[in-house]
User: Fold this.
Amino acid sequence: MPEQRSSIHGQWSSRFIFMLAAIGSAVGLGNIWKFPYIAGENGGGAFVLVYLCCIALIGAPIMMAEILLGRRGRRSPINTMRVLVREERAHRAWSLLGWGGVITGFLILSYYSVIAGWALAYVFRAAAGTFMGVDAETVVAQFEGLLSSPGSVLAWHTIFMVMTMVVVARGVRGGLEMAVTFLMPALFVLLLILVGYAMSLGAFEQGFNFLFNLNFGKVFQVCETGASGVEQCRFTGEPMLIALGHAFFTLSLGMGAIMVYGSYMPGKTSIASATLVIVAADTIVALLAGLAIFPIVFANGLEPAAGPGLIFQTLPIAFGAMSGGQFFGTLFFVLLVFAAWSSAISIIEPTVAWLVENHGMRRVPAAALVGILAWFLGIGTVLSFNLLSGEEFQLFGKTLFDLIDYLTANILLPLGGLCIALFTGWVMSRASSLDELGMRDGIGYRTWRFLLRYISPLLVLIVFFNAIGLL
Ligand code: TRP
Assistant:
């Protein structure tokens, strides 16, 4: 019986710890680094609204499904899918879901670790007082100085990857539980302080409006001024795809990370209420980060569409100008590194759990193997910002980093999520999902199932076809 199944990797010691771990996974660079810069690149308000809709209508139901699958299978995603395929008498092709997750995990971790390495570098810069009294120009130059040195970025990437592998090797519960208990709340408080600083700037309203004012033109159209000087606009579905992909990315969905955490979840915990808390926490952190950053952008005449460097080119100005900024700045980047750390661990845990289950490996060599592979892949991202940044090294106008990011966040994660929705909604029996969710067959369950069977898959498909331009 599924109820008696337990994971060979152990279980979270309580419901609270599961929540912290899942929030630790969800809250990371996605919220603080990626969300502001993609919102900035895609015009703000309308993009944010599409993102919030994707979170509510697609992300939340799929998160419930992913936790449900993991807890029912109680194994790494690859083996969980195998077991469930057998139990539900489904086609074997569904087990590919687990494999897709492993590949996606490698790709994501490879660049995630490089960006986390930037944050690590900024811990030391902040502590050294590098940001005291800096102006916008200096901050941009400082950031470019870091990126143009492949050697130092590679070194920080290496350090972060080693940190991640150490925790994964010790077992996710060992190192992680304490870290998330204290650090997540601290990060939250620091974000509030930053928003407080942003409110003291004249441009707070402008930043706020940028994030929440609806201007659909930006989301549906790209405009270019042609050679004749006439502005030409054409329809594009791409920002919507980016919003959708980010909903998956920020909630850690679509590749088995939340599934594997679900497999360590105590049996009696309510999946629905856990999902609600995780999704709310993740969304609040992202919005706070946006509210901290955009007023600084506008107050200093910076470019909202600055790209992946956005937080590194804005927050130092704030720290340089506020009292106690050296302390707060250091603390902020320390906490950002911890947030990235607790996310990175979850990206690779499905693969390590599988190596332990199927190849009898111990966690230490399994973690080392996975880390070395992801580290190698990461060199591509390190070089994307310097030696390989030139146009001759780009494909479709994208660097290697852009390509990996695009492929994983905008294509592989939504595809994985689509399969999770279809499997849980259509293949798995009603009895199984009712049982695992521990819900009555009432309005709550029915709403969830309806969203999962119809709304989420349809929306994912619409956004996909929209972006390819077929719709
Ligand atoms: N959600 C994390 C963030 O926002 C990143 C992350 C962790 C992730 N695990 C994942 C992304 C699994 C996709 C899949 O930073």
